[in-house]
Write a structure and sequence with these properties.
Helix content: over 70%
Number of domains: 1
Structural class: mainly alpha
Shape: elongated
Keywords: Membrane, Transmembrane, Transmembrane helix
Strand content: under 5%
Largest sheet: none
Length: 54
């Protein structure tokens, strides 16, 4: 986790959001799970960026 950059977390969150929108019509539980994963990855990226700027 220490060697992963903030940009990687942002990119993974975008992928999770896109997959959530693609799978929205097929499986609603996967949609909500991917939304939660995307939000968590986004905030991990924010926290990583804050820690590297200090």
């Amino acid at each position: 986790m220490k060697n992963i950059s903030a940009l990687t977390f942002y990119f993974a969150s975008v992928i999770a959001f896109v997959l959530a929108n693609v799978l929205k019509d097929n499986n609603l539980s996967v949609y909500y799970a991917l939304l939660v994963v995307g939000i968590i990855l986004f905030f991990l990226g924010v926290l990583k960026r804050i820690k590297t700027n200090r």
